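Exercise 3.2. Students should predict the tertiary structure of the chain below and write it as structure tokens, then compare their answer with the key that follows.

Predict this chain's 3D structure.
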Amino acid sequence: MKEELQRDVFDALKQLAEKLGTTTEKLFEVYLRQAKVSAVTDFIITVLLIANAVFSVYANMRWSGASWYYYRFENIGTTSLAGGGLILVSYSVLSILGAGIMLVCSIQSCMTGIFNPAYSASKEIMNDIAAIK
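Answer key:
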């Protein structure tokens, strides 16, 4: 099974290299580097979204006057709903949801790209060949 998959990836890579006019070694190196870059980029975006969510909760707490030790949800944004409190609450909720969704969706691809970039590169090669056919 493993040899069959390796043969399929090599054949696909060979077809793609012929269509692009390059060698299979050079093409695989490009895919391998891109897998690492993509994984690091996804990780950075996830970290930034989590930092944004933490900052929005902190800003919301500063706005409402709540303390870190006694965080009551009824205090969130009640100081001035018309003055932006409701917008800040909505932004906080959406930031937390976005960070959570990004974390769940990208953690597997980040870890695969960082620790096993050859698998990610092979998967991309197969996807690209399927798109070309």
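Discussion points: Helices lie at 2-20, 24-64, 81-115, 117-132. The mean pLDDT is 76.
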